[in-house]
Design goal:
Distance between the termini: 82 Å
Strand content: 15-25%
Structural class: alpha+beta
Oligomer: single chain
Shape: elongated
Number of helices: 11
Largest sheet: 5 strands, antiparallel
Helix content: 40-55%
Length: about 450
């Protein structure tokens, strides 16, 4: 503000000097000093000319700077004017906006780079009056669907009618569905289509995401095979390596001319170790066989209360041995259509899991409850054990994943497969310092 006043003062001083010059010149003419009067007028002319160029340059710099800002053109160089303190505020504004634009351009480049490197088709539409234009199309969308980066919706519609028709049918509203698209006139592929609409600074945008179901499935299958191979190779090496070492030791002992009692004892222990490792490997293979060859459930009407009582009776010796208090909170008669043996196995697996979770607890409690709603029966096995750590929550149903040294890692996986084969699901959560496993089955 003060610098602006200073500029006005300089202009005002020039006007005063011009007025004084005119007055003096007229005075000199009156008293007969003709040449002095002419000289005075020449000085007034020079002062007026200087003032004209001063104001002109001032206005030109302001106009040029403001014009650059309005047009987002920050390539102009005003360094020769920076010595003039009158422009400080203006140039500070220019530099601030220039830096902000550079930051925005940098962000745009980074965001576009991210969008262009993800394996999902992304297209963003912007509404202009009654029509839509292509605001952004990432490289995956363009390359995968063999679509040139057009600027108008009508051009995209000519190249991908299947996609555009679905979007137009919903009037550019939120969509989540699957869609089949033929690529390069070859076999049709299925994609997950997700679309949403948003308004930003009074501009209407429509965002479309396309994920190939085939790619998602292939990635999941690849990850599953990698995890399976890791587990199998780990278990095989854990058994084969010591067996091979023992066999080498036995070979050395057998090659001796005579065997002492100590040698015979070593042979005995070696054979026992090999048997133990072989039994472990056999159990591992049996566990895999159970998962791979799970028979279809033979469903029949079963009373849930009776099923739970059978499981508690089977597990009762272990409950007594570990000083665990078990409470059956199921009071109503629920009838479920299940394979009783398989469902019993699931409950036994969950109860065994709870016993292991209560290993280092002073007060040990397991509760079994049930609730019917929305044509489903929810069975809950609750314990006050150590709970499931957040880091492994998404792994507990993976085949052969276990945190116990003696565990096979198939109990929860097998339980999940059995319940899903019955058309239900199994989930877990931590609630009030308790671990809850919930089975959902269709009520009969």
């Amino acid at each position: 503000m003060l610098k602006t006043l200073q500029t006005y003062k300089l202009i005002f001083l020039r006007l005063i000097f011009i007025v004084i010059g005119i007055e003096l010149s007229l005075y000199f003419f009156k008293i007969g000093l003709l040449f002095t009067g002419i000289f005075g007028l020449c000085m007034v002319f020079l002062l007026g000319r200087e003032m004209y160029f001063y104001v002109r340059n001032l206005v030109l710099v302001y106009n040029k700077t403001i014009s650059s800002i309005l047009q987002n053109d920050f390539s102009s160089d005003f360094s020769k004017h920076k010595f003039n303190s009158s422009y400080n505020d203006l140039f500070n504004l220019y530099e601030t906006l220039k830096n902000k634009q550079n930051e925005q351009v940098t962000r745009d480049i980074i965001y576009r780079s991210i969008l262009n490197n993800i394996e999902s088709g992304v297209i963003i539409l912007q509404k202009q009056e009654a029509d839509w234009s292509i605001f952004l199309m990432n490289d995956y969308f363009s390359n995968h669907f063999n679509v040139s980066k057009v600027s108008k919706w009508k051009y995209l519609k000519n190249q991908l009618p299947a996609l555009c028709e679905i979007i137009e049918e919903d009037d550019f509203h939120e969509i989540k569905t699957s869609i089949e698209i033929s690529i390069n006139e070859q076999s049709r592929q299925t994609f997950v289509l997700q679309a949403s609409r948003t308004e930003i600074f009074e501009q209407d945008y429509f965002i479309v995401l396309l994920d190939s179901i085939q790619n998602v499935v292939e990635k999941k299958e690849k990850d599953a095979w990698i995890n399976l191979m890791k587990v199998i190779s780990h278990e095989l090496l854990n058994s084969i390596t010591p067996i091979r070492s023992i066999c080498q030791n036995l070979e050395d002992l057998v090659e001796q001319d005579s065997l002492s009692s100590e040698d015979l004892e070593d042979i005995k222990h070696s054979v026992q170790t090999m048997l133990r490792r072989s039994d472990h490997l056999q159990k591992f293979v049996e566990g895999y066989r159970k998962l791979a060859m799970l028979p279809s459930p033979k469903k029949e009407k079963v009373e849930l209360q009776h099923l739970i009582e059978n499981c508690i009776q089977i597990m009762n010796p272990l409950f007594k041995k570990n000083n665990i208090e078990v409470r059956n909170l199921v009071t109503q008669n629920y009838w479920i259509n299940v394979d009783s043996q398989q469902t019993e196995q699931v409950l036994i697996n969950l109860l065994t899991n709870s016993i292991n979770a209560l290993e280092n607890k002073d007060s040990k409690q397991i509760s079994i409850s049930a609730e019917a709603k929305n044509n489903r029966v929810f069975i809950r096995v609750i314990d006050n054990g150590k709970g499931i750590e957040k880091e492994i929550e998404d792994k507990i149903f993976l085949p052969f994943y276990t945190t116990r040294t003696e565990g096979a890692g198939i109990g929860l996986t097998l339980s999940k497969n059995i319940i899903e084969a019955h058309g239900g699901y199994i989930s877990h959560r931590n609630e009030n310092n308790q671990t809850v496993f919930e089975i959902s089955l269709i009520e009969n």
